[in-house]
């Protein structure tokens, strides 16, 4: 297939490109910069200039493709609500380019949208249209397109990681480095799901090849790792103390991230594994945190 890929130079997109090309697909990769275009061309990708801020500019590229994978997202979590709404508009534009065909569109969301209640494993067969998580905007946009006859499926992500980046954990490392302590809230027994980025890239490929309208997939290798275990690994890596904070202390310590760090959001991928035969091979999140180079890891570092 000829696949139009947003976020092609990003963390997931850059791992997805060799996965797709290795399976015989052609890739049109969206980038906003000359440097990104050069890197994509070197990787065997056809560069396409575009931005999330101008979603209509993506229409022409998507219209020439057999399939579209949307991994791009503005990861400034201090503006999370606004960025989720921006994603809604991008998904609508991509869907417009595919209208009247059965060409698949695979969009991206978060596993939290599949939660049916506190302490429950998020599942692929759960989607509350009025979910309080702002990322529901992406799935609402996808549902609207599906109702309009467009072949949309959803990839829900946990904390996606390697030894350089780890989803929300990367900014937590920056905060720990700046504050001189690695912290968790309360007993730290709240859980985050996770998967290695190579396993996630493979699942995106399997999902776009399946092209199943309305399907929801969870890219979850580990259902729930305690935030205390994560903080402890960070503390060891940075050589700083690991401490428990009260909710009030956490607000001052974590800033914008305080709303995320106390969340308990375990997730299952049982349905995904059965449907697509996906078998993640790791390594696990703690293993990657234990072997990370803390001189460079984190969002604020040049290597990130």
Main features:
alpha/beta, 3-stranded mixed beta sheet
Low-confidence stretches: none
Number of strands: 12
Distance between the termini: 31 Å
The coarse overall form would be globular
* Arithmetic mean pLDDT: 94
Q: Strand sequence of the main sheet, in spatial order?
A: 3-2-1-4-5-6-10
How much strand? 15-25%
Class of secondary structure makeup: alpha/beta
C-alpha Rg (nearest Å): 19 Å
Binned, the helix content reads 25-40%
What's the main sheet like? 7 strands, parallel
Please trace the helix and strand order, writing H or E for each element: EHEHEHEHEHEEHEEHEEHEHHHH
| Count of helix runs | 12
Summarize the structure.
With 304 residues, this protein is of the alpha/beta class.
Describe this structure as you would to a colleague:
The chain has 304 residues and is of the alpha/beta class. 39% of the residues lie in helices and 18% in strands. The protein has twelve helices and twelve strands. It has helices at residues 11-22, 34-42, 59-63, 80-98, 136-147, 169-179, 197-210, 227-238, 247-254, 258-261, 270-276, 285-291, and strands at residues 2-6, 26-31, 46-49, 67-70, 105-110, 152-157, 159-161, 182-185, 191-196, 216-218, 222-226, 242-245. The protein has a seven-stranded parallel sheet, with helices on both faces. β5, α5 (136-147) and β6 (152-157) form a beta-alpha-beta unit. α4 (80-98) packs parallel to α5 (136-147) and α8 (227-238) packs parallel to α12.
């Amino acid at each position: 297939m000829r696949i139009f890929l947003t976020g092609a130079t990003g963390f997931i997109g850059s791992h997805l490109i060799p996965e797709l090309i290795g399976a015989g697909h052609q890739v049109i990769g969206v980038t906003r910069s000359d440097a990104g275009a050069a890197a994509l061309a070197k990787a065997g990708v056809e560069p396409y200039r575009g931005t999330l801020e101008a979603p209509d500019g993506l229409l022409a590229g998507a219209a020439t493709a057999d399939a579209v994978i949307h991994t791009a997202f503005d990861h400034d979590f201090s503006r999370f609500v606004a960025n989720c709404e921006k994603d809604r508009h991008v998904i609508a534009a991509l869907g417009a380019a595919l209208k009247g065909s059965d060409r698949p569109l695979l969009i991206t969301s978060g596993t939290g949208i599949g939660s049916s209640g506190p302490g429950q494993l998020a599942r692929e067969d759960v989607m509350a249209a009025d979910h309080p998580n702002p990322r529901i905007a992406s799935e609402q946009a996808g549902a609207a397109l599906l109702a309009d006859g467009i072949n949309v499926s959803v990839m829900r992500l946990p904390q996606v990681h390697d030894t350089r980046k780890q989803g929300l954990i990367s900014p937590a490392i920056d905060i720990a480095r700046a504050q001189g302590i690695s912290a968790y809230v309360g007993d730290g027994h709240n859980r985050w799901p996770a998967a290695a980025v190579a396993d996630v890239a493979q699942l995106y490929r399997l999902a776009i090849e399946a092209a199943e309208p309305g399907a929801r997939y969870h890219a979850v290798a580990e259902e729930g790792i305690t935030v205390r275990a994560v903080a402890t690994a960070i503390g060891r890596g940075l050589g700083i103390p690991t401490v428990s904070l009260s909710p009030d202390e956490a607000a001052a310590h974590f800033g914008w991230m305080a709303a995320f760090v106390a969340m308990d959001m375990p997730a299952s991928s049982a349905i995904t594994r059965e449907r697509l035969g996906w078998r993640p091979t790791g390594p696990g999140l703690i293993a990657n945190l234990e072997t990370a180079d803390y001189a460079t890891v984190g969002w604020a570092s040049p290597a990130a």
